[in-house]
From TrEMBL:
<keyword id="KW-0479">Metal-binding</keyword>
<dbReference type="GO" id="GO:0020037">
    <property type="term" value="F:heme binding"/>
</dbReference>
<keyword id="KW-0349">Heme</keyword>
<dbReference type="GO" id="GO:0004497">
    <property type="term" value="F:monooxygenase activity"/>
</dbReference>
<keyword id="KW-0503">Monooxygenase</keyword>
<keyword id="KW-0812">Transmembrane</keyword>
<protein>
    <submittedName>
        <fullName>Cytochrome P450</fullName>
    </submittedName>
</protein>
<keyword id="KW-0408">Iron</keyword>
<dbReference type="GO" id="GO:0005506">
    <property type="term" value="F:iron ion binding"/>
</dbReference>
<dbReference type="GO" id="GO:0016705">
    <property type="term" value="F:oxidoreductase activity, acting on paired donors, with incorporation or reduction of molecular oxygen"/>
</dbReference>
<keyword id="KW-0472">Membrane</keyword>
<comment type="similarity">
    <text>Belongs to the cytochrome P450 family.</text>
</comment>
<keyword id="KW-1133">Transmembrane helix</keyword>
<dbReference type="InterPro" id="IPR002401">
    <property type="entry name" value="Cyt_P450_E_grp-I"/>
</dbReference>
<dbReference type="InterPro" id="IPR001128">
    <property type="entry name" value="Cyt_P450"/>
</dbReference>
<feature type="transmembrane region" description="Helical">
    <location>
        <begin position="256"/>
        <end position="279"/>
    </location>
</feature>
<dbReference type="InterPro" id="IPR036396">
    <property type="entry name" value="Cyt_P450_sf"/>
</dbReference>
Length: 455
């Protein structure tokens, strides 16, 4: 029998077997702690971190799971010697993603496919997408200027449905694109619904929405093959690996489905939080506006201009660290008995790493509950421990980090520039507590009074 080495370098299998399991609770028979997770996913991880520490056991979706929180634990979780994404995720997640997409893969096939997809998320590719972002921004800014007062979350949902539709399948902004957002919302709700397909319930509706979106993408792929376009789908159709390999049509439709819904939800949540942050911190808004006036006061944007907006980038990073956006990674499976911090990690168990909780560890981020963009000044960002800033996952680019991570930064900068060049806004009376959605946002949707900026 081969003896497995563990994280701390010991090499006796019997020694691992004699180690205790991490602290934690398996919850109720059969259902474990799944209901508590579904009720409030962010509180689930925060409360158990406080009670048990950075590694604990639980029982989710029918199997025992080890949770890892903090930079060191997150790094251990990413070690493919011990963990694999293959068959690691609950059946409902795999079914919603149509069984075959990057979050569900590992090994050489994952790396091959990831490298192809990353070709659509380079600085050169972003220069092709920025005009699309600006066109969508102009369309909705004109609308908001006329409205004067509105609920921004609703407006950002419409805008980001249009933007995702434009970036991924080449559609124009407007009501047709906004309708795709409603289908996307139904699909996303399936990830936190009771995983029983009754057709008319939340999970059943999510599966129908998945099928509609896949058919929609099939039509878009056929159109792009007839008439190539310079959007994300067009780049992915043309992507070639070093060995000449490409994405098959089945792989392409599933990967674009995954990227499409991740972009849509990531876009509208991040933009809502950007607008909330600038309204709540007038000193941050003033400094950001000054930077925009200095480096991007007018004219079309490109990557060269955006890269000069250093303070604005610090704001975008702190938004993704500070707010409870992503609670955890996708799930993995333990490949072999191993050890972490003198705890036994059994083969065959599930595993997951906390994202938001990792970025709120006071040992790394002082005063983690304070919003401080300065913590991401280039010299400070460079000294952060590995896998301490993990808003879209950690590790190498061709690993399990979200391929669209840099695109979120670009979009936030583009939208901030267009807002700060001309507009100002103030919060209206409302409840600013966050809801318990998979991607939490202010309960009242961020009600604002919007108008022209006057120095």
């Amino acid at each position: 029998m081969q003896i497995q080495k563990n994280f701390q370098g010991k090499d006796t299998e019997s020694n691992i077997k004699n180690k205790p399991l991490p602290p934690g609770s398996f919850g109720l028979p059969l259902i474990g702690e799944t209901i508590a997770l579904a009720w409030d996913i962010h509180s689930f991880y925060r409360q158990r971190l406080k009670k048990y520490g950075p590694v604990f056991k639980t029982h989710l979706f029918g199997k025992p799971v080890i949770v890892f929180i903090g930079p060191e634990a997150f790094t251990f979780f990413l070690n493919q010697e011990y963990f694999t994404r293959e068959d690691g995720n609950p059946q409902p997640v795999r079914e919603l993603l149509d069984w075959d997409a990057l979050p569900l893969l590992d090994g050489e096939e994952h790396r091959r496919r990831k490298r192809l997809i990353l070709q659509a998320f380079t600085p050169q590719a972003f220069d092709k997408y920025i005009p699309v972002m600006e066109q969508n921004a102009a369309y909705y800014l004109e609308r908001w200027e006329k409205l004067g007062s509105f609920t921004w979350l609703n407006e950002y949902r419409k805008m980001c449905a249009s933007l995702s539709n434009a970036l991924f399948v080449g559609r124009s902004p407007g009501s047709e694109s906004e309708a795709v957002g409603k289908i996307m919302d139904t699909f996303i709700k399936g990830f936190s619904a009771v995983p029983i397909n009754l057709g008319f319930n939340g999970y059943g509706k999510a599966l129908k929405s998945r099928d509609w979106l896949l058919s929609y993408l099939d039509r878009a792929i056929a159109q792009h093959q007839e008439q190539p376009q310079q959007d994300i789908l067009g780049v992915l159709l043309a992507a070639r690996g070093d060995d000449g390999s490409t994405l098959t049509e089945d792989q392409l439709r599933r990967e674009v489905l995954h990227l499409f819904f991740a972009a849509y939800s990531g876009f509208y949540v991040a933009l809502t939080l950007l607008s909330l942050t600038l309204a709540q911190h007038p000193e941050i808004m003033a400094r950001a506006r000054q930077e925009v006036n200095q480096y991007a006061a007018d004219g079309a944007l490109n990557m060269e201009k955006l890269q000069k907006l250093v303070y604005l980038e610090q704001i975008t990073k702190e938004i993704r660290r500070f707010y409870p956006i992503n609670a955890a990674t996708f799930f993995a499976k333990v490949k072999t008995d191993c050890e972490y911090k003198d705890f036994r990690i059994p083969k065959g168990w599930g595993a997951v790493a906390g994202i938001h909780t990792t970025m709120h560890m006071p040992q790394v981020f002082s005063e983690p509950e304070s919003f401080k963009p300065c913590r991401f000044a280039p010299e400070q960002f460079a000294t952060l421990p590995p896998n301490s800033y993990v808003p879209q996952g950690g590790g190498a680019k061709d690993g399990h980090r979200c391929p669209g991570e840099d695109m979120i930064t670009v979009l936030l900068k583009v939208m901030a520039v267009h807002l700060l060049r001309r507009y100002t806004w103030e919060l209206l009376p409302q409840n600013l507590e966050f809801n318990r959605d998979l991607f939490p946002t202010p309960r009242d949707g961020l009600k604002v009074r919007f108008g022209i900026y006057s120095p």
